[in-house]
Write a structure and sequence with these properties.
Distance between the termini: 13 Å
Structural class: alpha/beta
Helix content: 25-40%
Radius of gyration: 19 Å
Bound molecules: nicotinamide-adenine-dinucleotide
Number of helices: 11
Oligomer: single chain
Low-confidence stretches: none
Shape: globular
Number of strands: 14
Strand order of the largest sheet: 2-3-4-5-6-1-14
Length: about 325
């Protein structure tokens, strides 16, 4: 039997195939479909590679497609001139099992991570929220800012100890780089640091604030103190991941937060659970990163290729 050609989307092709606006809508739908039980997602598997970082195997299935993302988080890599996150996605036909496409995991991850931040802000930020504070302006910070800008947030304060990283975001989006305090004073604050030290303390919380906590996506990472986390109205992408390897972990382990205090974003988006308790509440969304988000963006990229909107390289396996 002849082996069919398999399309391969590199970073540039993924980003040409799926706009931030399309990623946001696809990811929003993925949360709703998963909440409804229509999309399947076994738990993410972590394979530590001490002392450098870890590998993650992330499968999901939905809408006739199945996906496996094999991706890394190696926090020391930038010092070696290498990216923190890299990997490959295999998208398959859920009906036949055949591989349909290989995709660069880094660009899909960046797009779906930023998209989730925009989806969470849309669902949970207070009415009239218009400014974005960005704490951590690396790859995922940049894409978070791009997605929030695509969602209509016109003003922002990027902050990063690496002034050049903050300036890059500021120049691209017409925002103004600032101090940590200035970033934390914005309506929607997105934290996208490596999670080595907390950047949000209980004293930083103001009525009406929405926090997207994106950097703590594995064991041992945190961007807010447990006391700060415990003072917020809490939301997460997936409880098991958030409680064991996310921003909520410290507060859960300290006995400050239990399952009944945390709402899944999918339930809010589906209208099955309340979102923000009131205009003065402080809401916190813990993003740990889900394979359904990857499936949403990879599915959109595959659609773009099928419709001839993007060119792919090809391989025969
Ligand atoms: N939630 C998710 O779905 C998801 C997805 C991908 C990556 N991540 C995580 O997000 C984090 C960032 O990833 P990345 O690829 O953007 O890394 P990166 O190395 O490209 O960027 C990190 C940035 O944070 C800055 N930084 C470090 N300490 C800081 C501090 N105290 N205050 C402000 N900025 C600080 C660094 O200078 C750098 O610019 C990692 O922990 C990664 O594992 C989460």
């Amino acid at each position: 039997m002849p082996v069919p050609e398999l399309p391969v989307l590199d970073e540039a092709a993924v980003l040409a195939a799926v706009s931030p606006a399309e990623a946001i809508e696809s990811v929003r739908q993925a949360f709703v479909r998963h909440h409804a039980g229509e999309w399947a997602m076994p738990a993410k598997i972590y394979l530590p590679s001490p002392p450098h970082g870890d590998f993650r195997a992330m499968p999901a299935r939905g809408d006739g497609l199945a996906l496996l993302k094999w991706v890394t988080s190696f926090p020391g890599n930038p010092e070696r001139g290498l990216p923190t996150v890299t990997g490959v996605i295999c998208l398959s036909d859920a009906g036949t099992g055949e591989p349909l496409m290989l995709l660069d995991a880094r660009s899909v991850t960046a797009l779906r991570t930023g998209a989730a931040a925009a989806v969470a802000a849309g669902a949970l930020a207070r009415e009239g929220a218009s400014s974005v504070g960005l704490v951590g302006c690396g790859l995922h910070g940049l894409w978070t800012a791009r997605c929030l800008a695509a969602a209509g947030y016109a003003a922002g304060v990027p902050h990063d100890p690496d002034a050049a990283a903050a300036e890059r975001v500021a120049v691209e989006l017409g925002w103004g780089a600032g101090t940590l305090a200035e970033a934390l004073a914005c309506d929607v604050v997105c934290c996208v640091t490596p999670g080595a030290v907390p950047v949000v303390e209980a004293g930083d919380l103001r009525p009406g604030l929405h926090l997207n906590m994106l950097g703590a996506d594995g064991p041992g990472k945190a961007e807010a103190t447990p006391a700060a986390v415990a003072s917020c109205a809490l939301f997460c992408d997936e409880w098991e991941q958030a409680a064991h390897g996310g921003e909520l972990t410290g507060a859960v382990e300290a006995g400050l937060v239990a399952r009944d205090r945390v709402t899944d974003l999918g339930a809010v988006l589906a209208g099955d659970a309340p979102g923000r308790p009131g205009p003065d509440a402080v809401t916190l969304f813990d993003s740990t990163g889900l394979a359904i988000q990857d499936l949403a963006v990879a599915g959109a990229a595959h659609r773009a290729w099928r419709e001839g909107r993007v060119e792919a390289q090809t391989v025969r396996l």
